[in-house]
TrEMBL record:
It holds the Pfam family IclR_C. The keyword Transcription applies. Keywords: DNA-binding, Transcription, Transcription regulation. Residues 7-70 form the HTH iclR-type domain. GO terms for biological process: negative regulation of DNA-templated transcription. Residues 71-256 form the IclR-ED domain. Gene3D superfamilies: 3.30.450.40, Winged helix-like DNA-binding domain superfamily/Winged helix DNA-binding domain. PANTHER family: HELIX-TURN-HELIX TRANSCRIPTIONAL REGULATOR, ICLR FAMILY, HTH-TYPE TRANSCRIPTIONAL REGULATOR RV1719. GO terms for molecular function: DNA binding; DNA-binding transcription factor activity. This is IclR family transcriptional regulator. It comes from Chelatococcus asaccharovorans.
């Protein structure tokens, strides 16, 4: 029981940190941080104070908000120094961006969310769901997250969609049932395609990453103006993406 309590506390602290990152330089108030993390104010206050004590969070001198602290930057620098594969993915995304005239992203699963860990916008500045590196979207929102769900068992994917329902921008035509169908289509086709359902005039396509026949909890996606990605180009775009991903993995990669 104690181990479960500790793990739940750690999870809450990590969720708080991810939302502080979204708060940027100005940070978030206690109430905002608690609301976004889905926890009570007293719990958020206790966890944030601990994070401040350990320099993982700090309070700007000009406000009572909380933002990421210097310990996060220190860890990031260590991570970059020991990252053996990051450069491969940066090269991969740069190749995809240049060849497809689109912004390219690498997403990894983080709980019930997809976290953008690499991005290459090239010369294509356009609105995206994640806003780039460090951005998160709930699994089920956008082609990258759909491609990740396609690598899971259908029952697990549907359970995640149900948990994320309040955040999936559902409408009369965009329902949990239609999203589940999109995941099944991505699993069958080997890619997820967004014809501009969420962001008007912005289309995206994503492939799940598969290594030695095993789906990894990650996906590579693109976002481009609709005029640059007509449906007849989707198959060729996916073929190009798979080739670049295989090179990054250093081994043949197959679609989901």
């Amino acid at each position: 029981m104690a181990d479960k309590t500790i793990s739940e506390t750690v999870e809450k602290a990590l969720i708080l940190l991810s939302h502080l990152a979204e708060g940027g330089h100005d940070g978030l108030s206690l109430g905002e941080a608690a609301e976004r993390a889905g926890i009570s104010k007293p719990t958020a206050h206790r966890l944030l104070n601990t994070l401040v004590q350990q320099a993982f969070a700090e309070r700007p001198p000009y406000s009572r908000n909380y933002r990421l602290g210097p310990a996060i930057s220190a860890l990031a620098r260590v991570g970059i120094a020991t990252d053996l594969h990051g450069e491969r993915w940066r090269t991969c995304l740069a190749e995809i961006s240049a060849a497809t005239e689109a912004a390219a992203f690498l997403f990894v699963r983080a709980g019930d969310e997809a976290l953008c860990v690499e991005a290459d916008f090239g010369a294509f500045l356009l609105p995206t769901l994640s806003s780039g590196i460090g951005g998160r979207v709930p699994l089920g929102l956008g082609p990258g997250s759909l491609a990740i769900l396609a690598g899971l068992a259908e029952s697990e994917a549907d359970a995640i969609l149900a948990r994320n329902a309040p955040r999936l921008r559902l409408t009369e035509t965009r329902t949990l049932e239609t999203l589940s169908a999109q995941v099944r289509a991505a699993r069958c086709n080997g890619y997820a395609f967004d014809p501009g359902e969420i962001l008007a005039e912005v289309r995206g396509v994503a492939i799940g990453v598969v290594h030695h026949g095993n789906p990894l909890p990650m996906a590579v996606s693109t976002a481009s103006l609709a005029s640059r990605l007509p449906e007849e180009r989707v198959a060729d775009t996916c073929k190009l993406m798979r080739k670049a991903v295989a090179k990054a993995l250093g081994a043949p990669s197959q679609p989901l």
